[in-house]
């Protein structure tokens, strides 16, 4: 089986960005404050504000893409 590394990395980036969007919205209304606090510690740009949420979404998407693409590429190397 061959994985499309670019498609998998793109999908992971979108899922990560949506997750960060949900945490930004939840943080703004005061739900899941523990998870929001953890994301503020783990991500450099994330805050439960509009600008912080957009910056966190971009950061999460980039990190996910950069980590998943080599994983999929390596999978394809070993699957041959």
Q: How much of the polypeptide forms β-strand, as a percent range?
A: under 5%
Give Rg in angstroms: 15 Å
Oligomer: single chain
Order of helices and strands: HHH
Helix-strand makeup class: mainly alpha
The global form is elongated
Counted beta strands: 0
Distance between the termini: 8 Å
Could you give a quick summary of the protein structure above?
It contains 3 helices and no strands. It has helices spanning 5-29, 33-42, 50-79.
Account of the 3D structure:
By secondary structure, this protein is an all-alpha fold. Helices cover 81% and strands 0% of the residues. The chain contains three helices and no strands. Helix 1 packs across helix 2 and helix 1 (5-29) packs antiparallel against helix 3. The longest helix has 30 residues, at 50-79. The radius of gyration is 15 Å and the shape is elongated. The mean pLDDT is 93.
Task: Please outline the helices and strands.
Elements: H1 5-29, H2 33-42, H3 50-79
Keywords:
81% helix; 80 residues; elongated; mainly alpha; 3 helices
